[in-house]
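Example 3.2
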Amino acid sequence: MTVTRNALRKWEKVRAFALGLPGATEEFPWGESVVKVNGKVFVFLGVADGSHPLGVTVKLRDQTAHAHALASPGAEPAGYGLGKAGWVRVPLEEQGAPPAELLGDWVEESYRTIAPKRLIAELDGR
């Protein structure tokens, strides 16, 4: 499986954006990249080595954002029961996949549902 350069660029932008949020740290449980705040995952990034399709998984409580994300080509509720809690997996290699800026908005929305109030205040103060 080959990763498209465009999808990889989007993935790298989303990863950099997520890691730039207050208190964000990257960890590799299960050999996949996740970004956490306060010890809790707010975005699953998977792997960028071409062994699996590139995508991001975010938690969207806002109904409009959730519906918009699910309308993306190939998007689906996240597995392992996470979809019931608002998690959506958005593939990056599909034709018409969302742009990095929109993915960043969704990552921020996911961050805001997970992060403690003091870190959200820090983000809002930027």
